[in-house]
Fold:
Amino acid sequence: MSPHPGSASRPSPVPPPAAPPGRGWRREGPPLLARRQIAAVKQAARELRREATRSERLLWDALRGSRLAGLKFRRQYPLGRFVLDFYCPAIRLAVEIDGDIHDTIQVADKERQTMLESIGIRFVRLPAELVESDLDAALAAIKQAGGFNPSPAPQAPTGEGSAEGRG
Structure:
């Protein structure tokens, strides 16, 4: 028997919570507004992939397929109203190659970078000349910006338990 007579026959005054719109909640990545992609930006990203510069092609060959520290990078990645040259969602790192065009749009580049950094995306900017002349140095700069320190030379253990500590 129910503690409240007639309560089983009355509908509940509070409706159940509605499911969130869309395909569900996503916990990782930029905020929702930044994830919305404008169709024109997506189209621009496709065109930029087709018309990659020499330095972009060289860097993509080194980054694709998780070749750098096992990190998956995306190229010409649309994010909000911007297109990032390369982006690693796992560590929220954008890699921008600055070619000749960037000499004329430095103020716009800085504003764009500031906006994206405000939502937690880190940046590394590489001159196109560096990528083309010293790809290893460019990859080392990306690793460092991503928080990966170059591994030091192996050293003999010291302290308790080592030959030195047993004295």
